[in-house]
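Design review, sub-item: ligand-bound model
Attendees: FS, YL, KQ
YL presented the inputs for the iron/sulfur cluster complex:
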Amino acid sequence: MRVDLHQNLIASDAAVEAATLVESCVHCGLCSSVCPTYEVLENELDSPRGRIYLIREALQGGEVTAKTRAHLDNCLNCKACETACPSGVQYGHLIDLGQQVINEQQVRPFWPRMSRVAIRTLLSSRPVLKTVALVGWALKPYLPTNLRSKVPVRPSPATWVTPRHARKVLSLSGCVQPVFTPGHDAALSLLLDRFGVSLIKASDGGCCGALSQHLDAPEAARAAMRRNIDAWWPHIERGVEAILSSSTGCGAQLMDYGHLLRDDKDYALKAARVSALVRDPGEFINAMWDKNPLVLSPLAEGEERLAFHVPCSLRNSLRAKAQVEKVLRRAGYKLTPVKEEHMCCGSAGAYSLLQPDRSEELLSRKLKHLVQGNPTQVVSANVGCIMHLQKSSPLDVGHWLELIARRLPSQETSHA
Ligand code: SF4
Ligand code: SF4
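KQ shared the predicted structure:
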């Protein structure tokens, strides 16, 4: 699809890159069949192809209206469209760039802009989020019922296994996960320990940058990426085998560091090295299980029936859905069928906060399909999906890592 870039945009790096990506689209429409927003809204302009048209219009100097912005904002950035595209259109990068170009042309209205700043500030800073969470947990018993249900459950403290092996992998420190679900990383550290690998955390690391990346703040995202690289680099130089995140949304962002910092002369090579080291925990654990199968406690009657909610980031970005399913089957679980597996659950980073009605619609649809196969519990692999599903699920929802780690026989040496 040819793009005649408007002369006012020739100096914009984002516009030039977006034009190149738009030009790789052949306008076939195959992506629409897997797009959740097209499925729900039934409007061509809420399909990937429709949004690519809108971005092309903006790049050619067409008027950017509130509707243009709304159709782009409706996108979940789930990247399901990338998996269906025969031309390899990098839609995930394109939607971020398209929004950036539109923001450069016409600043986002005040309140929507402020809500994005507030969400970014709150969620991507662990100390700020921790403080707000502590206040929320303290006030929770006194809140009206409708507000009480919005305060996430206070997690039990979780302990990492003390590093004791020569083989080491790095973990992302993260932002939301250590506050609300610290057990996910603790479970990963326990599982890896049993395979003879230690999970280590760099003390200065933090948010992966994904929230800022998708909320109009690409420079803040790059700052977060550089900070993580600085924190990890001494460990990388000492020879860690991989970088793992127990949250697939963050893992997907880490995999993109090389691309997102490719023009940064100080960080491009380091960022490419980081991306090359990123593995999904499912892939890493399977490779070790091949040589050294885990011994787990037996499952109780019915406990083996599991519904696996596959996060979009696991399926469409990390492309490791099959790896996690393989670990679950190896651990004795039977995965119940889930219809419309490709549909996003509506969590999608900050989408559930910015577009609550559509997010709830996708959530109800997802939960209906998850319980249809009569599982005894639901597991997933991304903190956002898990917390989102937990809000309304009739079944327990947890992380697959915790589920398996709970079945490891105890060993006195294993906990800090
Ligand atoms: S990223 Fe997801 S919601 Fe957005 S256009 Fe692609 S398939 Fe549709
Ligand atoms: S499938 Fe790919 S090439 Fe076809 S319309 Fe969608 S983005 Fe364009």
